[in-house]
C-alpha cells in the first residue's frame, strides 16, 4: 500500500468534506503525505495545511486544472505549487470565471427537456459558487429524484451527448503547465484512463500525442495509480510513464464518503519499474 495520496477534493471545489475534515479522514486512514487538489482553486490549502500540522502528516499544495485539448477535456494536476504565486492565481481565476455562464447554459439545456429549477438547486450544493460544476448539478438531480446516484446522473444527463452537457473551452495545455511551472510546481496528467473511456473518448494515439506534447512542455508526471483506474490500467500507464519519461503519481480522486470509487489511503503499490513522482522533491530535500 502507498501512504501517499496525491489527488483529492474538498468542498472548496466539488468534494463533500471541508479541507480540515478531509485531512483528518486521510490521517485516520494512514495517509502520510496528502495533496489537496481542488478544481481550479487553491482556497482550501491554508486550512488543510493547518489541519495537517495538527495531525502530523505532510500536506502537499496541489490543484487540478481544467484544460481543453483538441476538443477533449483533460485535467492537469499541479503538485508542490506555491499558492501565493500571482501567475498561477491569475490563471486559475480566468478558468473559474467562465463556470457561472456554463452552469447557466447547462440549466437552460436541461430546462428544455422539462427539468426545471436546476440552477438554484445546483448552487445550493456548491459551498464555493465560483467552482459550480457538474458534480453539484448531479447532487441536486439525485436529490430531486432524477437518478439514484451521482454516477448514474452523469451517464443519463451530464456527459457528452446528453442534455445537461454543454461544450466548454477550458485553459490551453501550454498555459496550465506554464502556470504550474512558473510557481515551482510539478505538472501531472490526471487519470489518463478517463480520457480513453466513455462517450466522446479520445483514441490511444491521441493520448500518446497528449503525453508527448505534455512532456515537451515540461510536464513531469502521470497518474499511474488512480482511484478511477483498473489494475490493468496501472500496468498500461506505468508503461506510458516509461515511454514518455514521466514520473508515476498516485491519487484516490476522493470526493466524499460513499461517492467515490476509492476512499483516501488505500492505494495499491505501483507496478514494478515506476519512478514515483516524490523522487522529484525528496531527493532535493535530503540535500538540504
Ligand atoms: P466539471 O469540472 O464541472 O466538468 O466537473 C467535473 C467533475 O465531475 C469531475 O471532477 C468529477 O468529480 C465529476 N465527474 C465527471 N465525470 C463523472 C462520471 N462519469 N461519474 C461521476 N462523476 C463524474
Ligand atoms: Mn471533481
Ligand atoms: Mn479530474
Ligand atoms: Mn479530481
Characterise the protein shown here:
41% of the residues lie in helices and 15% in strands. Strands 1, 2, 3, 4, 5, 6, 7 and 8 form an eight-stranded mixed sheet that branches. The protein is globular, with a radius of gyration of 18 Å. The protein folds into two domains: 4-96 and 174-287, Metal-dependent hydrolases (TIM Barrel); 99-153, Orthogonal Bundle (DNA polymerase, domain 1), CATH 1.10.150.650. With 288 residues, it is α/β, with parallel strands linked by helices. One manganese (II) ion is lined by residues 7, 9, 64, 253.
* pLDDT averaged over residues: 96
**CATH superfamily heading of the largest domain:** Metal-dependent hydrolases
Q: Shape from CA axes?
A: globular
Count of distinct strands: 8
Question: Pairing-aware structural class of the strands and helices?
Answer: alpha/beta
